Amino acid sequence: MRAKVRILKVKTGGFTIFINPKDAQEWKIHPNDLIRIESGKRSVYGSAAISDFVGVGEVGLSEDILESHQFSEGEVVALSPAGTPESVRYIKKKMRGEKLRKVEIETIVKDIVDRKLRNTEISAFVTALEINGLDMDEIAALTIAMAETGDMLDIDRKPIMDVHSIGGVPGNKTNVIVVPIVAAAGLTIPKTSSRAITSAAGTADVVEVLTNVTLSLDEIKRIVEKIGACLVWGGALNLAPADDLTIHVERRLSLDPRGLMLASIMSKKYAIGSQYILIDIPTGKGVKVETMEEARSLAKDFIELGKRLGQYVEVAITYGGQPIGHTIGPALEAKEALETLMTGKGPGSLVEKAIGLAGILLEMGGVAPKGMGRKVAREILESGKAYQKMREIIEEQGGNPDIKPEDIPIGDKTYTIHAQSSGYVTAIDNKAITAIAREAGAPEDKGAGIMLHVKVGEKVKEGDPLFTIHAESEGKLDKAIVLARRLEPIKIEGMVLQVVGNL
Amino acid sequence: MRAKVRILKVKTGGFTIFINPKDAQEWKIHPNDLIRIESGKRSVYGSAAISDFVGVGEVGLSEDILESHQFSEGEVVALSPAGTPESVRYIKKKMRGEKLRKVEIETIVKDIVDRKLRNTEISAFVTALEINGLDMDEIAALTIAMAETGDMLDIDRKPIMDVHSIGGVPGNKTNVIVVPIVAAAGLTIPKTSSRAITSAAGTADVVEVLTNVTLSLDEIKRIVEKIGACLVWGGALNLAPADDLTIHVERRLSLDPRGLMLASIMSKKYAIGSQYILIDIPTGKGVKVETMEEARSLAKDFIELGKRLGQYVEVAITYGGQPIGHTIGPALEAKEALETLMTGKGPGSLVEKAIGLAGILLEMGGVAPKGMGRKVAREILESGKAYQKMREIIEEQGGNPDIKPEDIPIGDKTYTIHAQSSGYVTAIDNKAITAIAREAGAPEDKGAGIMLHVKVGEKVKEGDPLFTIHAESEGKLDKAIVLARRLEPIKIEGMVLQVVGNL
Predict the structure, then answer these.
(1) Separation of alpha carbons B431 and B36, rounded Å
(2) Residue A41: its pLDDT value, please?
(3) What keywords tag this UniProt record (chains A, B) (predicted)?
């Protein structure tokens, strides 16, 4: 069947192709059937919706399709029903617990990217992986297939360094400091980051307060070849697109099978050509990886996978038992990171982690002698060279390099929670802090978040301020206060934990 | 948020709720998010689509929703984002290989029916069942939950008999003959059937050639209480609606986990109150159950499940190695069944299977002495009493009881395939026969199908007609001929299978 394209002003979150009821009847197409449209060398698969929104002989495309596929209003395309994709057989093979061959994994990934597999089939794949797992051969094949079905970056400077923190610890603006230190030392580090999904701020959300983070691959190549670094939002790029489609399903099932997690992270690194990669695994209560044992096992897998991909990987298991630094939320974190870069000083947990990670990268990249990376990193930070590099990054990405911490607007609706007793801070609950910051509006409201006045181990007196909630609206502030009172995220205990009487 | 309902002329195959981009932004609703609308005691869940199709303050409902939920144009409803359904936790429990409790299974089924779980989650459930299975406690709980979340039939005549054939054998119009025999003997048998999904004709498709099969539960109750039987399409009823939603996903993955298959069949029997159930398992090459061992194991499960549900189940393992009777396709099968009922005679494979199954039911229902069922069934068929009962069924369901076999229109575009050598028919390929009949237009084109002139074991001479393809259009006939020549569904071999020379 030949049909004329109409672009419909609708987003369904999938690829939806609208067909008139008369055409659907003639072509025996039912709602939600997989169909294919084709024009010259371009083709796309989508789910049928049957509707009067389009006339007979017309085919309506949802805007989702236009984001990645070029079809234009009035263009004539061929439309046909599509059968069951071949890769469903391989998904079933994994259900039976069998090992998948490289070409089978490639077919699954290609069918995901081509939208031949929809959420229903991707969900079966994710579930089969959750139950039956993947071995390292399969994970390597999956990683490469995910990278190669998307865009790849080829930067004309070597070696390419990279750093990645496994999510989960609030306030983790560390890499906003690590990247300029590493680039200031002369290394190349094209850093892509994600936005917050379940957290209060992703690195991309934080950097966006300072400069533009939505760049094309060509712009990234130009900038990184010029100044050695960037800090951009990976989601704007077509890096490992199968990963985004898979993650959407994983999130709905709150699943994160290890093989997919490894492939997800490493495919993006592979796609931008990273050769020396530092993985930061924050470990502690209330973050993704809670025990040292789990962190070590995951570290081993990252290193092994790196070997298969021709990448040199080191892993830093870091303390993730409480937030990093004092701020949580995009603007608050951007402010803290910028202050730290400008003055070379900042909260101990932030500065020590940043120079620790940067130091490892400097040694990996051969610009600091073994055992001296941390020292060199500290010098670069304290000398203002890292700040200078950050100014270049801000400027090249389209922001104002003269931005000052006090220029950054912070939510002006505030409320401070005070200590109800004297004692020591024994715990700060990561999950509760994140929940309160989100309730206050983060990450969408960039000025929303939390300023911590105390950290674990500090002594407080009754009535001392513990933390301040920032919001952009009174309504959200009120909701965050209610949640803060309920969750009590900061725990204070006297030094005397228990008195035992006469036995 | 309160919004005014608009009914949109669109079918997406799911429950889709359209929201204006401005409202979506304000309410932080993204495409494909799960949302809930509510008005008084009615509520429904659906997937968000963001579109200008509706104005600010309006909510557009896809027609799919209106099929089962009453909302009217202009009605004011409350709209809210919905979180992750509780039952996702239980699906994950099954992924871990744990046994589900009754209440957990009930929650999953309820969430499927309420559309809180969409294809993505149902697919995870189906995949987890495929891999980790269900034990009989779980299957029984699933069966009852599926039945009780839909409509139930309460017929004021006891005992209620039922018969069900596991799909797969072409030409299986047997139950069109079994049901009137059983009812003519005074028993009650409210038979619901399905339409063809992957076959060339389901029982509902066949009966629809003779009379209306789309009836309400009230009409079924009235008819069955009056004449003791019906032959209707189960898909028109709201029996075990979770099953239909699950089957849609199973079909896309071409999966059919045993626990779900048992629950699927038995939940519909439970919902219409069947007490004595005969399960027919055709066994042979190219049907669902290929080996006797598998058939016996499945039979044991049906019987055990029946016990848990308070139903008495017997199982007939029948020969399914070739098509039943001589015809395949709705009109051709209806004609053959009607001729058999009118004359009391027909192809041996059809008559013997029909009176065999009917005989078992007569004994189960206590209207034939043990061992005499088959004989009594044959008498009822040959005496014309079964035909008389079929006339009542046709008339009560709204058809013309005087319909004659020669009144039934058969596809008049025909082509006959002839034997290319002499010998014996050693095999008729079920899957090939079905594929050719479907290529000719069955089941949508009711007159399309295949007439077999030979069956397995018969002697043929070169040039003898083997089978005739019937179609309603030349185009489809041509395509069916091409497929028939490629597949060669009827195998002829000389009696001498191999000559071994001097060893």
Answers:
(1) 44
(2) 87
(3) Glycosyltransferase, Hydrolase, Transferase
Pairing of strands B34-39, B42-51: antiparallel
H/E stretch holding A467 = strand A465-471
Give B139-157 pLDDT, tens digit per residue. 999 999 999 999 999 999 9
pLDDT value at A500 more than 80: no
As a whole number of angstroms, the distance between CA A355 and CA A377 comes to: 5
Instruction: Say how far residue A494 (Cα) sits from the centre of its chain.
Output: 39
Give residue A498's pLDDT band: very low, low, confident or very high (50, 70, 90).
Answer: low
Residue B250 phi/psi, 5-degree rounding, is: -55, -40
Cα–Cα distance for residue pair A225/A190, rounded to 1 Å: 9
Tell if the CB–CB gap between A14 and B8 is shorter than 8 Å: no
**Are B101 and B50 contained in the same domain?**
no
- Residue B261 belongs to some domain of the structure: no
Q: Are strands A276-283 and A312-319 parallel, antiparallel or unpaired?
A: parallel
- CB A334 within 8 Å of CB A249: no
pLDDT exceeds cutoff 60 at A495: no
Q: Which two tokens mark A309?
A: 């991909």
* pLDDT for res B250: 94
pLDDT at A28 over 90: no
CB contact under 8 A, A53 and B10: yes
Give me the half-sphere count of Cα atoms (radius 13 Å) on the Cβ side of residue A332: 32
In a domain? residue B297: yes
pLDDT of B493: 86
- CATH number for the domain spanning A107: value is 1.20.970.10
Q: Are A451 and A200 in contact (CB under 8 A)?
A: no
Residues 6+ apart with CB under 8 A from A89: none
Task: Count CB neighbours of B459 within 10 A.
Answer: 12
SS3 sequence, A123-182? HHHHHHHHHHCCCHHHHHHHHHHHHHCCCCCCCCCCCEEEEEECCCCCCCCHHHHHHHHH
Residue numbers of chain B with a pLDDT score lower than 70: 495-499, 501-503
> Which of B193, B490, B165 minimizes the C-alpha distance to B354?
B165
Q: Which chain A residues contact residue B32 at CB under 8 A?
A: 12-14
Last residue of a domain, one of A81, A116, A148: A81
**Integer Rg of chain A from CA:** 25
Binding residue per annotation — B197?
yes
Report the relative pairing of strands B34-39 and B76-81 from DSSP bridges: antiparallel
* Nearest CA distance, B98 vs chain A (angstrom): 12
Cβ-based neighbours of A223, under 8 Å, separated by 6 or more: A215, A229, A230, A393, A396, A397
For residue B185, the domain's CATH number is 3.40.1030.10
Mean pLDDT, all residues of chain A:
95
- Domain with B487, as residue range(s), is 413-493
Handedness of CA A302, A183, A197, A338 (dihedral sign): positive
Q: What is the DSSP letter of B190?
A: E
Does B498 fall in a domain? no
pLDDT attached to residue A499: 63
Same domain, B446 and B383: no
What pLDDT shows up at residue A169? Answer: 92
- Are A476 and A441 in contact by the 8 Å Cβ rule? The answer is yes
Contact B480/B450 with Cβ under 8 angstroms? Answer: no
Q: Residue A197, annotated ligand binder?
A: yes
Chain A nearest CA to B31, separation (Å): 5
pLDDT tens-digit map of A79-96: 999 989 999 999 999 999
Within A75-180, strands assigned E span: 76-81, 161-165
Residue B168 in marked binding region: yes
What proportion of chain A, given as a percentage, has pLDDT over 90?
A: 90
pLDDT at position A497, please? 52
Nearest to B128 among A91, A92, A127 (CB): A127
User: What distance separates the 2 farthest-apart alpha carbons in chain A?
Assistant: 91
Q: ipTM score here?
A: 0.90
